[in-house]
Amino acid sequence: MTTALITHPACLHHELPPGHPERPARLQEVLKALDAGEFRALLRKSAPQAAPEALVRPHAREFVDAILAAIPESGFVRLDSDTIASPGSGEAALRAAGAVVLGVDMVIAGEAKNAFCAVRPPGHHATQNRAMGFCLFNNVAVGALHARAVHGIARIAVIDFDVHHGNGTQAIFESDAGLFYGSTHQSPLYPGTGWPDETGVAHNIVNAPLPPGAGGAEFRRAFETLVLPALAKFEPEFLMISAGFDAHRDDPLAQLRLDESDFAWATEKLCASAEQLCGGRVVSTLEGGYDLEATARSASAHVRALMAA
Question: Which of 8, 14, 124, 125 is flagged as catalytic?
Fold first, then answer.
């Protein structure tokens, strides 16, 4: 078995006003990097559109309907202060969520050892009933609840190393003891959540906030002392990764000082944990990362580690 790479050209058609950091070039550069010869063995798949029943597991049906109805025929529509839709945004969001659903299906069926979903818009800020932080639907939560509803997976974990706390994923997971969310992120920083005392209904939420200026040593320490032990204690049957690369030292939106070797290390640790806990079943999806070159290098390091698992 190999690593699946799941994407779709529609994810490039989520256009935003000039100067917005969540631009199509982010995904273009990641895909360009993953076209290198070393990634020839990737199993490349086209992302389907997520079905309505998949979207309404983590989201209110009224919210899903409202987002899709808000997609403009031309120009831009502001969904919140920094989350904007254009004519291509609806299909892009459906493909982004659908990619994670397909990744779950492929890994559970044994068609791939693990999967990376190279998609946009990102998802981890989207709550049950609110689009925010560049996110329309919560892609990783859609995938997690699909794994439960369709495949009977009872215990699912998401580990999130985006520089911003995934408030949406936490909000969807925190009241369900069968779902685990662990996050390293800069604090203070948008969206202002992710404190250590946010622990969920059954200590199923673990937050490891890092101060501005923290680097690889602090990140790895938080992973080894907080995130990985809590993950092992939870004993998931399936592991998902919210792979944001905006904690890179070159990223313009935050002040952590990681580099691509830190993302590779974290991926290796997570894959090793998954091997012990859940048969190596891992699905990862792209979240943030706004310096084009740093994001492409970091995604390459992440996928390289998935392939080596």
Answer: 125
pLDDT digits (tens, 9 = 90+) for 113-132: 999 999 999 999 999 999 99
Report which residue type is found at 299.
Answer: A
In this prediction the pTM is 0.98
Name all domains of the chain by residue range, CATH numbers in brackets: 3-308 (3.40.800.20)
Q: Residue 210 and residue 189: Cα distance in Å, rounded?
A: 10
- Mean pLDDT confidence for 63-85: 97
Burial class (CB in 10 A: 0-12, 13-18, 19+), 125: buried
In terms of DSSP bridges, do strands 156-160 and 179-186 run parallel, antiparallel, or are they unpaired? parallel
Tokens linked to 188? 């203070």
165 is catalytic: no
Sign of the Cα pseudo-torsion (292, 297, 302, 307, in order): positive
E-assigned strand segments in 69-195? 77-78, 84-85, 114-117, 156-160, 179-186
CA–CA separation, 296 and 219 (whole Å): 20
